[in-house]
């Protein structure tokens, strides 16, 4: 049995008998009165909005009268204006009046941006300035350029405009494509120096924008033109150009700082394909005094970090041995330490930690492994001094530290009381009311925008109660984000919701699955957002891939349309639970292996089991080669402990309520 299987069930057993604390003492009283929806108004809105979303130009005046007090009536107007903009039949004054009537709203900013874009394209600079002055909103980079152009055309060029325009030009490289005229204007006024163009060219090359950099070439000094030409030419074949420099077949006369920057960038580019050749060329360039000692160390570190990702431990350690510890970047320090950790080279790891910057040593991960390395080198007291404060934290490494010290894990749950008066006030906040109706009329993206916009500047007290409101709606991902954005990281009750228990409890029992593990997986995968879609196509609460969902559904004899039905909890949960149960069975109920397989696929989990060994412990987790999967497993194990604690608290409170002498009989 692995160390995980030995310790986690015991930990769960301990959690089950913990006494109730004040953080959950009001669990059963956290109920909100239900706000009665206007179902007729919702239907009227939905019918008209559907037509408008198809791009139709319809008369909505009668509909607006019917929806006089309905929160989403402005959405019909803004969509009609968007359609009119698309067809070029807009009434400027009507649109401006509408925008002025709905300040500080998410839909106003979106509609105004589209309107300003149209005014900029048609060069209606007077209307552009009237609109931005009447309804000031933050402008994106493209609209900011239009704003500067409009000011120059209508108001004229002042000293203040010059300062603002040059600051914009320097800070927004690469400029949007509507800004060519501004560059020409600034150039004619003599406001852009060769130093400005040099810095812009460097910025563009670092951002992998060679075409934009080439357009600036004729504005550079002759010396700068040469290094940019060399850099541009060398991008397609850095080895050829760098070798030519080492043999002096090509000259490179430039400021030493520029030379180091260009050549270091090219060497790092070459290192990704030809590391051995890069190492040789870098040494030769240093001998020829083409790059500095510091630049050589930077290239060597880049090569060492690359080796840490793709090669064996001995090669990696050799690569890092050639670099003084004080020359390592934070990334280099961590790559070196991770190599020693995976090798279980405890003495050298202790030495590596001695050279760590303080900000890295403060990280939970490195504090835990520093303590472990000290323990392994007979420095138990020093290790204990590191573990004791870490064991007080509610995270993966805090739980490991507590386990090592024989202590109970600390949840540090913050009491987040429900204020029904404040919640009811929030319900009638126009932005929150719009978000609620958008959710329940099946427009989740617009709802999310309204929600986040409305709460973006709200006080902490409002965000807490908004989290409770979202919790009541069943929009748990918004509840979690509201608590997080308010900085309430210890609001455990809000950040780790006990959702879908009526469905999940029997499913977990039937599948012989640990319920806290199932809840932890949903929290990690989707934050309980039933409409969640991943970039690779995984869907719903348990982020099931359509192909997997179809296969499991056939086994469960569920007739589904995967891409639609996996977004429904009634299908997603039984399918996801069955798939997870299959992985747990496959891996002898080992949550680490099951989690790794759920994230990266059984093929990779099997490969790690072969290469890393069958003793699955915390060091095994650190040796997982995929960073995403490594972090996924850690999160899942930590979330599992939090949910075990939450369920234990709930059961304790339930029993207390049953045994209370004031409980009504019958």
Automatic annotation (TrEMBL):
Q: What range(s) does the Transglycosylase SLT domain occupy?
A: 508-611
What the entry lists under SUPFAM superfamilies is as follows: Bacterial muramidases, Lysozyme-like
Which residues belong to the signal peptide in this entry? Answer: 1-22
Q: Does Signal count among this protein's keywords?
A: yes
**InterPro entries per UniProt:** Lysozyme-like_dom_sf (IPR023346), Lytic_TGlycoase_superhlx_L_sf (IPR037061), Lytic_TGlycosylase_superhlx_L (IPR012289), Lytic_TGlycosylase_superhlx_U (IPR008939), Transglyc_AS (IPR000189), Transglycosylase_SLT_dom_1 (IPR008258)
Give any Pfam family that matches: SLT_L
Instruction: Indicate the family of this protein.
Output: Belongs to the transglycosylase Slt family.
| PANTHER family (alphabetical) | SOLUBLE LYTIC MUREIN TRANSGLYCOSYLASE (PTHR37423:SF5), SOLUBLE LYTIC MUREIN TRANSGLYCOSYLASE-RELATED (PTHR37423)
Entry protein name: Lytic transglycosylase
């Amino acid at each position: 049995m692995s160390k995980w299987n030995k310790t986690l069930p015991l930990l769960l057993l301990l959690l089950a008998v913990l006494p109730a604390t004040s953080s959950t003492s009001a669990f059963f009283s956290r109920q909100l009165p239900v706000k009665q929806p206007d179902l007729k108004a919702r239907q009227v809105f939905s019918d008209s909005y559907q037509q408008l979303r198809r791009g139709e130009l319809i008369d909505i005046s009668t509909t607006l009268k019917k929806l006089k007090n309905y929160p989403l009536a402005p959405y019909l107007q803004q969509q009609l204006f968007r359609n009119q903009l698309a067809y070029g039949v807009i009434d400027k004054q009507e649109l401006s009046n509408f925008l002025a009537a709905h300040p500080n709203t998410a839909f106003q900013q979106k509609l105004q941006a589209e309107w300003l874009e149209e005014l900029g394209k048609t060069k209606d600079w007077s209307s552009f300035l009237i609109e931005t002055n009447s309804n000031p909103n933050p402008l994106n980079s493209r609209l900011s350029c239009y704003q500067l152009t409009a000011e120059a055309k209508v108001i004229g060029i002042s000293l203040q405009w010059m300062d603002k325009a040059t600051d914009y030009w320097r800070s927004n490289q690469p400029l949007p494509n509507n800004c060519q005229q501004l560059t020409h204007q600034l150039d004619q006024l003599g406001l852009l120096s060769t130093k400005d163009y040099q810095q812009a060219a460097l910025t563009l090359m670092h951002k992998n924008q060679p075409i934009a950099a080439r357009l600036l070439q004729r504005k550079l000094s002759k010396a700068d033109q040469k290094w940019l030409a060399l850099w541009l030419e060398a991008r397609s074949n850095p080895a050829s150009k760098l070798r030519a420099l080492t043999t002096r077949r090509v000259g490179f006369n430039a400021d030493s700082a520029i030379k180091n920057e260009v050549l270091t960038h090219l060497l790092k580019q070459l290192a990704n394909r030809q590391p051995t050749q890069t190492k040789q060329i870098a040494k030769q360039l240093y001998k020829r005094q083409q790059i500095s000692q510091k630049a050589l160390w930077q290239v060597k570190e880049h090569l060492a970090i690359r080796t840490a990702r793709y090669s064996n431990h001995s090669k990696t350690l050799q690569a890092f041995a050639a670099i003084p510890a004080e020359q390592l970047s934070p990334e280099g320090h961590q790559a070196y330490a991770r190599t020693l950790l995976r090798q279980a080279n405890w003495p050298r790891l202790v030495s590596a930690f001695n050279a760590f910057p303080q900000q890295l040593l403060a990280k939970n991960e490195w504090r835990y492994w520093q303590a472990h390395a000290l323990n392994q080198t007979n420095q138990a007291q020093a290790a204990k001094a590191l573990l004791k404060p870490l064991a007080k934290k509610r995270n993966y490494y805090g739980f490991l530290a507590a386990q090592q010290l024989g202590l109970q894990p600390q949840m540090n749950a913050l009491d987040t009381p429900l204020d029904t008066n404040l919640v009811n006030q929030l319900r009638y906040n126009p932005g929150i009311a719009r978000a609620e109706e958008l959710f329940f009329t099946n427009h989740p993206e617009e709802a999310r925008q309204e929600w986040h916009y409305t709460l973006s500047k709200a006080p902490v007290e409002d965000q807490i109660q908004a989290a409770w409101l979202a919790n009541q709606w069943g929009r748990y991902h918004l509840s979690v984000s509201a608590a997080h954005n308010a900085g309430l990281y210890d609001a455990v009750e809000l950040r780790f919701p006990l959702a879908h228990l009526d469905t999940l409890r029997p499913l977990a029992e039937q599948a012989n699955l640990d319920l806290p593990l199932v809840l932890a997986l949903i929290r990690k995968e989707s934050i309980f957002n039933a409409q969640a879609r991943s970039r690779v196509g995984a869907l719903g609460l348990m982020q099931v891939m359509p192909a997997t969902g179809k296969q499991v559904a056939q086994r469960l004899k569920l007739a589904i349309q995967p891409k639609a039905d996996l977004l429904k909890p009634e299908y997603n949960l039984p399918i996801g639970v069955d798939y997870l149960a299959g992985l747990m069975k496959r891996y002898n109920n080992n949550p680490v292996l099951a989690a790794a397989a759920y994230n990266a696929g059984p093929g990779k989990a099997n490969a790690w089991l072969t290469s890393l060994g069958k003793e699955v412990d915390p060091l095994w987790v650190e040796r997982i080669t995929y960073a995403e999967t490594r972090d996924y497993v850690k999160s899942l194990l930590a979330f599992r402990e939090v949910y075990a604690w939450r369920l234990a608290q709930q059961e304790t409170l339930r029993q207390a309520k049953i045994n209370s002498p004031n409980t009504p009989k019958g």
